[in-house]
Amino acid sequence: MEDALPAGLLELCALVGVPREQAREASQGFQKKVRSLPPLEPEVLSVFVPPFTSKDESQATTTNCNNFNKSKRRSFRKKKDRPKAENVKGLNADHRVPDTEDISVPKDIDLVGLPELCFPGGLYISSESKEDHIHFLVFTDVCGNRTYGVVAQYYQPIQDGCIPANGQAHWESVQTGKTFACFVPFAVCVISRYPYFNALKDCLSCLLVHLRPFKDLDAEDHIKEFAAKLFLIPSPPPGPLHLIFNMKPLQIIIPSREDPDSPIIDLDLHLPLLCFKPKQVLQVMTCILTEQRIVFFSSDWALLTLVAECFMLYLHPLQWQHTFVPILSHQMLDFVMAPTSFLMGCHVDHFEEVSKEAEDLILININNGDITSSKLSERETEIPDVPLEAAEIFIKRVESLQLHYDLELCHLTSGINLSELQMRKRAWQQKLNTEIQQITLQLIFNIFREVKDHLNYEHRVFNSEEFLKTRAPGDQPFYKKVLETYMFHSFLKARLNRRMDAFARLELNLMLDSPRRPTMEKMTSKRFNPHYMISRRMVISMPNLQDIKSQDNPIKNSSLRRAETERARKFSPKSVSMFRIPEVHFPLVSQCVHSYYTDFINHLSRTISNLPPDNSALLARYFYLRGLISLTEGKLLNALSDFQNLYKTDIRIFPTDLVRKMIETLPPSERSQADRKPELKRLISQVMEKQREMTKVDDHVKNFELPKTHMQLDDFVKRIQESGIVKDIETIHRLFDALTVGHQKQIDPETFRDFYNYWKETEAEVQEVNLPPAVIEYLDKNECVYKLSCSVKTNYGVGKIAMTQKRLFLLTEGGRPGYVEISTFRDIEEVKSTTVAFLVLRIPTLRIKTVSKKDIFEANLKTECDLWHLMVKEMWAGKKMSDDHKDPHYIHQALTNVLLMDAVVGALQSSKTIYAASKLAYFDKMKNEVPMMIPKTTSETLKHKINPSVGETFPQAVNVLLYTPGHLDPAEKPGDTFPKLWCALNEGKVVVFDASTWSIQQHCFKVGSSKLTCMVMVEQSQVWIGSQDSIIYIINTHSMSCNKQLNDHRSDVMDIVVEQRNSIPSQAYSCSLDGTVIAWNISTLKVNDIFQLPCQNLTSIKLHNDWLWCCARSCILAVSTNGFQQEMKIEQNLKDMCSPFLCFQLFLERDEVWTSCFGSSDLCVWNITNLSSKPQKINLLDCSEVTCMIKVKNQLWIGSRGLSQGKIKGKIYVVDVERKKVEKELVGHADTVKALCSAENRYILSGSGKEEGKIAIWKVE
Predict the structure, then answer these.
(1) Which residues pair with 152 in a beta bridge?
(2) Per the domain annotation, does 741 fall within a domain?
(3) Which helix (H) or strand (E) element contains residue 942?
(4) What segment(s) does the record annotate as region Disordered (predicted)?
(5) I need a labelling partner for 261 at 20 to 30 A (CA). Which of 150, 160, 650, 1171 fits?
């Protein structure tokens, strides 16, 4: 079990130096003034590893605690081979320490090379004592796991070949006036699993105070106590809690990482900015991003590691995948001959040697900021420039930083307290570190923000060729090198796995919608951008919903502009709390350790009891620490209880692997105790089930390649989706039919290649369209040009016909290009393809008749006429369908069809191309074959339709809908102030819309993998989502993440309702299919009460005046919330009502309960004052089953499933409650209505099944 425990602050501590005999010989040679004494060979003199106590010690120390340190010293000597435990000589003593116990060094820590790294410049005896100094090490094992070392060097005097101890040297020097002839260096090396550079530096600085000469305690005893204390200090869990402990005379702070995916930062991130100019910093980052062979040089060993580590942190979340050795001793210089990528560091004295001996090295001199390549290189290694716009933003922001602490101190009073000075400097450094993190993250984001546009998530494909084409010519050398690296490959894996790391969070905060085509707004901004001439972007896929929104809807964040970049400056550092660790008392025997852990637990328990329950972030960290300490003490059940509390406070830090190992090692007696506690039994079941269900994550990334073999339909669908052209399967099927006209039903590689290339070439041509301001002013901001004709003669003049998603216009030619509107698609009345006589020729001509103009537009399109005829008719039909159904997705689909038609005609080049293209005219065929008349009532009531399945390969059922109003809280992000529409799709997917513009705000995050059954806004910052996996997921509405879960149900969670006291949410009730109802305290998430109803198949609950009404299949119960006493029961016991209940609504002010039953088209109205009488029935025409209902004002809106011409359809009935009469029948969906919700009683939103998968927005009258 000890192996499973997370590592503490210390992994190992070593004392390194020279043995007594060598020190004596060297000092004698030094006193004889032998010239050029060679460096001594350092060795590991002692190693201190945990555990530092044993069971025997507790008995021994009851009689004499002072014997502890001398009788059980855990140390050994080391030669060239791997050291073994053996009897140890003290530094001066000739006697042997008997019975030294055998110890084991952690298997992945190799002590063989440690002495050289502790003295990388060599170990030399000095004639005078030198100042103590510290440097830092990084070790990497074969799996890439890193371990960190902090080394403190100090000097001990040698007198007559002896190292004085116990104050003897001081006494003799006072009595006899002797001076020391020489000083020998020693090093204490602390090795940790975590990069706590500053904290361990402070710890070692405190240790060195006690290791100076003339102290009266033995050095090794001090080091052992020091190591034992560090071993007892745990590493804090990720989040807003730092640990602090006393290491006289300093207070040591152990910082936590910001979140589980973030690195620990315990160093000064501005060091490289002091050593290099911003442009040089970008050059170094480019060298790392392009995975060069890099060597840092400095005269300061400490700077080598710190600067290299800073650059690693600058690149987060990208990670260096290669050899990382920031310090090379002089014996290790041959490492730079390695042929693969690496990052190493060595002393500046070796600069010339390294430069001459190795080829193709990037040499970075920290001392003077120079960046050069090695002299053996045939040509100087070219370092490509970081993309221009990203570089300019980075340089501007770095130059605005305040990097000098002295300037910060000018206006402050002088501090007289060491602790106060330390905390003041730390606060300044933490603020600066946060600013630098934001700047470097923004740089990485600006460089790679458009990578996602070229990813296919379903097939895990990255289209690198098309991505490169979209880069500005000056930026392409950079991207060509970066795209080939392991770092970028890992970055792609993280994107495809939808990892929510720092990059993804920034993307979510900025809410970027990358435009598919250059909008008019983008063209206008580019016209005044000096980099416009060298920048070039291309569309990579069909237009999306955001690009085709109506003019009335504002466009939010359609592209990354400088204003958004500047907004990143306003991100403030998150507040953190400090927890003071109890004092560790010495001698460190078992009783003392037990006392320390007891104090630790008691201190944590007091802190937990004093924290308000709504501070769940801090509570989670305290529960985690208390669980960890309890586990260390062997209190496994207490530890499990604390870890179980993480589900309700912050599940992100739940230690799954640790808990699993705890469960596997539980003794039978404790396992039986755990099984008697429902919450622990549930925890054990969940953890072990998760272990069994674990599947290997698909981690491959494939670069897009054109096919080389013939393709059947299924393979063609996959290839088209991989290419990023279109995802919708039905559209791809039509494309397959078009490309195989007159051939076997398979597509050869040449046809696919021709189609793909024409598609991309057409995109590039349209991308280069440069509309003059006089034209742009006629177009909407969000309009894009999708198609341009050749120059043609028209009755409006000579020019090119341009098509946007909204209109056709003529781009006239001549002295100044001008704009002549042909028609919007909405105003088209008729489209014809005809011919006009010219001499003996008949010229194909396109005629467009519009509603608003008397003149008919004519264009002599010649060979393009038939294609434009098809395209205009498809757009016209799509626009009509879009207007009739209030669904902008139809025009989106029509536009996709038009672009595919164009590519098919361009690729096939045969006599049947127009016929082939007509296979894609989906809306035109629908218009001609099946005219879809929308009933007047439906058209008047329907306001808008939205598609939550945009970007998916097929529609998905809308299972649950929730509307949450906006709030004007100044503490919130701007995006949090807008109302939102939450939509639950299949397999735990949730899509969130901004309900002010109906644009997708958060495209698909997942909570579990089961069907979601209910959603409710419990309070302003929390949305609770119930699932068929019996879990309630709690979503933080600010971060849009799920950090908490409620696991007390044992069956499908079916419904959740909230009780309010004085308009404030006070309690929530949830029910599950097995009849369990749980009352929750909303602030603490504790169970207030739990009740088992005397029925199964509970489907929904409603709260009214302290009564909880529960709908099961067999009955409807009313129970009191005070004690859950049953008050009323409606049973299906009548012969003509044998179907189970499906859903219900309360109208208790009228003493009525309205119900529906499975498979029935009737509504039943029950009078609760006389339940023995039959209910009143309301029959719904053309209805197979009522699926959902919602009360709005004095109306009941009912969603249903019906059949029309053998097909399932969704219908909504609006019933007047007073008259019990159907007022409206709304035909709004092509599949079953699955969900209904109300938006402030002004609108009703309905969601349909998987055949359609859309949301309709209806006006309430």
Answers:
(1) 134, 188
(2) no
(3) strand 942-946
(4) 56-99
(5) 150
The domain tally of the chain equals: 6
Query: Residue 1181's domain spans which residues?
Result: 947-955+1133-1260
User: What mean pLDDT is predicted for residues 1222-1242?
Assistant: 92
Q: What CATH number is attached to the domain comprising 1082?
A: 2.130.10.10
- Per-residue H/E/C for 75-101: CCCCCCCCCCCCCCECCCCCCECCCCC
Same domain, 197 and 284: no
C-alpha 138/C-alpha 343 separation (Å) is 12
Q: Note whether residue 170 is domain-resident.
A: no
**Does residue 1237 share a domain with residue 1146?**
yes
* DSSP, residue by residue, 399-462: HT----HHHHHTTSPPP--HHHHHHHHHHHHHHHHHHHHHHHHHHHHHHHTTGGGGEETTTTEE
Q: What is the CATH number of the domain that holds 787?
A: 2.30.29.30
* Residues 606, 472 within the same domain: no
Indicate if 796 and 858 belong to the same structural domain: yes
Report cis status (omega within 30 of 0) of the bond before 164: no
Q: What is the pLDDT of residues 1002-1024, one digit of tens each?
A: 667 888 889 999 999 998 889 99
What pLDDT is attached to residue 1148?
A: 84
The structure's pTM equals 0.86
Q: Is the pLDDT of residue 181 over 80?
A: no
- The Cα 637–Cα 136 span in angstroms is 40
Which residue, 256, 261, 12, is CA-closest to 147? 12
Return the structure tokens found at 1017: 């806004």
**CA-wise closest residue to 545 among 520, 515, 523, 505:** 515
Q: Does 222 reside within a domain?
A: yes
Domain boundary among 252, 278, 305: 252
Yes or no: say if 991 and 969 are a contact pair by the CB < 8 Å rule: no
Q: What is the pLDDT of residues 109-162, one digit of tens each?
A: 778 889 999 999 988 888 787 889 999 999 988 778 899 999 999 988 876 656
pLDDT digits (tens, 9 = 90+) for 792-824: 999 998 999 999 999 999 999 876 778 999 999
Residues 772-798, mean pLDDT to the nearest whole number: 89
Chain segment 523-559, per-residue pLDDT in tens: 555 544 444 333 333 333 333 333 334 433 433 333 3
1173-1212 pLDDT, tens per residue?
A: 888 899 998 899 999 999 998 899 999 998 776 678 899 9
Q: How far apart (Å, rounded) are the C-alpha atoms in residues 920 and 932?
A: 19
For position 1072, what pLDDT does the model report?
Answer: 95
Instruction: For 581-673, list the strands marked E by DSSP.
Output: none
Rounded to whole angstroms, the Cα distance separating 100 from 951 reads: 68
Which of these three, 1102, 1129, 1156, is where a domain ends?
1129
Residues 192-217: tens digit of each pLDDT: 999 999 999 999 999 998 877 544 44
Looking at the structure, tell me whether residues 1142 and 1123 fall in a common domain.
Answer: no
Q: Which residues contact 151 (CB under 8 A, 6 or more apart)?
A: 117, 118, 134, 135, 136, 137, 187, 188, 189, 190
Q: Are 1103 and 1145 part of one and the same domain? A: no
CB 1236 within 8 A of CB 1246: yes
For 469, phi then psi, to 5°, come to -65, -25
Task: State the Cα–Cα distance between residues 1081 and 1083, nearest whole angstrom.
Answer: 6
Same domain, 243 and 289: no
Residues in Cβ contact with 511 at an 8 Å cutoff, skipping those fewer than 6 apart: 556, 557, 975, 1001
Residue 45 resides in a domain: yes
φ/ψ (deg, to 5) at 798: -95, 140
